[in-house]
């Protein structure tokens, strides 16, 4: 975020403070909205009921009530739990979300960090949450949690690969790993000469998009890949022994991560913060007006909501896979298909 | 050391042997997992003790009795109307069906038969109880698998049936409507028209569940080939109801027995399946629900007029004797063996409940399955704790 | 492609349910703002018509939970016609039903030979203390106002609705 965004010169510590606050908002605001719109309302509508209606108009303050409820609960830990790791696990899971959002661009100048290998960093950092889940499963000293933790380890590691491989197709097409470049390439591009829509990789990388969304569903341990949580068998899997603020961190982390992954997916496949440059006659990133720094986050928010709608829709509709079916699906189906996608993309890139 | 029964000793030895096998083959320790008695998956307080090797079950045993309420003992000191009230609560989801075999047994001892209209209305309410019971099963199936939406549809459409039962009998879950010699009361006006509407909604619900759950490839891969119970094993263990029919045995007490009810006067089909796996059991129940809606429509069409109560004395003393009546309840075969000594109440009532025999197959069928499959198999066997423990 | 795969059909079912809830409303009732009326025969609470009760104890005896407590005494009432002798009537001192024990079976209502007990569909009488669930005869008499007329019977029934 350069100081060109504002008319005044902001000292470095001020910029850092704004970055930190922006990061917190970028993680928690989507999490809260997702929880309300999709978990409370959309799930209820799909089940012929209205959801929370009492707290605030149409239940909009329900999340505030829930946060308050979780905060005032007693902080208990099982007797034989490994105290230090037990306490550290939710922090690790939530930390990976914040690290992930640092690399997402929200506007031409509204970004936190602009790595040249942005997407590489994002994929690497998203695996940190696996460690947190394993820690939670082991440190709970509970057989159910252990089963959940082990299932989670196998599942999350298995689905990292299709996620990364699906992204490679995008990288080949955009010729860069820098997320800002990927956004510009999509919005400044054209499909066979027609630039009315830009070149969202959703169209050319449709297979990659599907694989990425499936892998994201598995990374978030949402149904149909929620074996680690498996409510009807393991009570809550690795989260069973957590209560109070620690459970709140897992809960918020789950939906915040959904939001952040949706942000990344919208950057990779839907054109990120931008609208097709041709609509405003821009030719590159330097031409983009300053008001895009304010509208960009809103556009991102909209695209994120769309993708999270898809994730949640599938979550509420399907039963869950068994662990071995899950693994078979990842290793024997998704990885070969994503490899084929890379080959096709590479060939098409050379030809066209 | 306390004295263990032979059975307890045998299961202890079996558990040790299972552990030993695991220890030798893999040099790891088997893990004992207690599923229940408090657990989201079991239909009540059932405890399944499973010895696991990783995610595979090496040995499993159900430990029931957490909900034993002593019905047979209570029945010894209650009068017939009071026992009728109590037995409502055995299978609480399809509760009218519990009263019927008991009342029929008492009527057999008294050598009277309820008038035709009462028989038809009894059959009608029996089938409505079946629909209420099994539609909850269809929804609950989704929850066990992880699909959280079908259960709300099940409850939504089940409400209509419960409202019907409440309009007729006064109680949603515990109708307490059957009396020796007939029924307590006749149907209220508008019942027939309302029931026809509700049956249409139930048929839509069955179609919806078929689309949402049964047609879902994930559901099919979770249930096909899981928990296969061959025909002879099913017969050996005394399974009944849809569990038996899914293993290929054409056995339905409504058709095979001559009871003073209206099943033989209407046209309906018995559904069987040859696979004997979990999918077969669920599928048979889905078809049975559809068939029950057609049964109800036919019963409404042919409802005879007349009184609903035979001429019985005000204070009923059932003559001495013994009678056994069993019917095809929603969960399976439920029977009552009533011993009477000519009193106001029975001398002894033995209740043969379907679920108790159905879960006897759990140790056999759970060998070698994965932990998620335990839930699938238990869900497809479909038991109600009140029915197991009475 | 001949058949729509089951996965897609399932998504369609949930989506159409969502649209239906948004446009036509949910299947749920927002209690306590709106309340659904139970059917006429619903077994909500038992009402007592004191003038009809002769404390014959049939209801107390037939209750499976023994939750009805009756105490009465005999009194001499004035004769019906002038010049006759005084009649002996049963006067009710105490008629309590403990709704904490009651299992809502209806045997007492059915067994009463003098039509003194009635079912009412009222169900909102929960209390903060269990002891308050013991309704005495005054409270049971108040429930009489909520007792509905017996519903009309379906076509083909033998006689009109009793009670």
Describe the model.
The complex is a heterotrimer of chains A (352), B (390) and C (163). Chain A is built from 13 helices and no strands. By secondary structure, chain A is mainly alpha-helical. Chain B is an alpha+beta fold and 390 residues long. Chain B has one domain (71-358): Cytochrome-c3 Hydrogenase, chain B (Orthogonal Bundle). Chain B is built from 16 helices and 8 strands. Chain B has helices at 6-26, 71-76, 80-87, 96-110, 116-145, 150-169, 191-214, 217-223, 231-236, 242-246, 253-256, 278-301, 354-358, 362-365, 371-381, 385-389, and strands at residues 31-35, 47-53, 56-63, 178-179, 182-183, 321-329, 332-340, 348-352. The mean pLDDT of chain B is 86. Chain C contains 4 helices and 5 strands; from the N terminus they run αβαββαββα. Chain C has a domain at 45-146: Alpha-Beta Plaits, CATH 3.30.70. The longest helix of chain C has 19 residues, at 6-24. Chain C has helices at 6-24, 58-62, 107-111, 137-142; strands spanning 45-48, 68-77, 87-98, 117-120, 134-135. A 3-stranded antiparallel β-sheet of chain C has the order 2-3-5. Chain C has a two-stranded antiparallel ribbon with strand order 1-4. Chains in contact: A-B, A-C, B-C. At the B-C interface, helix 3, helix 6, helix 7 and helix 8 of B face helix 1 and helix 3 of C.
CATH class of the domain at 45-146 in chain C: Alpha Beta
State the major sheet of chain A.
none
* Range of helix content of chain C: 10-25%
Tally of structural domains of chain A: 1
CATH topology of the domain at 45-146 in chain C, what is it called? Answer: Alpha-Beta Plaits
Amino- and carboxy-terminal Cα gap of chain C: 63 Å
